[in-house]
Design goal:
Layout (H helix, E strand, L loop, with lengths): L2 H8 L2 H10 L6 H7 E8 L5 E8 L4 H58 L7 H45 L9
Antiparallel strand pairs: 1-2
Helix pairs in contact: 2-3, 2-4, 4-5
Length: about 180
């Protein structure tokens, strides 16, 4: 994610409320936001963050460590939920496109069958032959489109699986209560 988006996510009301709930804090989430230290450790040319430090300051070192560990766990869970939701939406959208393309293939096959049946006893005229060829071409194109959409569904699934796996491999907790 880019630095700004990640910073907003780390200090979001939803995430901080979850941390407050997990740690049974009686302070409002806004107070917790003021205690967070977020620092990107690696940025690429597009300001994408690959590694960052996350710490929550508190007067008690033990409490700071507890809050930071809870923040890491809640952050990981929250990102997993967001990724799963995004994957589900992408998959649903691609599956709808696949179903639509399959319907077009079925329609083309029905038209082809109707023309073939209606003109089976007639001599193949040029017009009928052209119609059959055009429908057959449409059918091939639609089948290619279905195959491409199914490949995109597979690619999206592989991409989200890779992103999730890469994300988890980057998450580590240091002794100084930072991530």
């Amino acid at each position: 994610a880019d630095e700004q988006t990640l910073g907003e996510l780390v200090t979001s009301e939803r995430l901080l409320t979850r941390i407050c709930h997990t740690c049974n804090l009686r302070t409002p989430w806004q107070d917790l936001r003021d205690q967070i230290e977020f620092e990107p450790l690696s940025l690429d040319y597009a300001r994408k963050v690959n590694l960052f430090s996350l710490a929550i300051q508190d007067s008690s070192a033990k409490q700071a460590q507890k809050l930071t560990e809870a923040a890491v766990q809640e952050f990981v869970s929250y990102v997993e939920e967001l990724s799963a939701r995004e994957f589900a939406n992408t998959r649903r959208s691609l599956e709808e496109l696949v179903a639509e393309a399959k319907e077009k293939v079925d329609d083309s096959e029905e038209k082809l069958l109707t023309i073939t049946t209606a003109h089976s006893d007639e001599k193949n005229s040029t017009a009928i032959s052209d119609s059959l060829e055009a429908l057959d071409t449409d059918k091939r194109k639609l089948r290619d489109e279905v195959a491409q959409l199914e490949a995109e569904v597979g690619s999206a699934q592989a991409f989200f699986s890779f992103q999730y796996g890469f994300f988890l491999s980057v998450v580590t907790t240091k002794g100084d209560t930072s991530l």
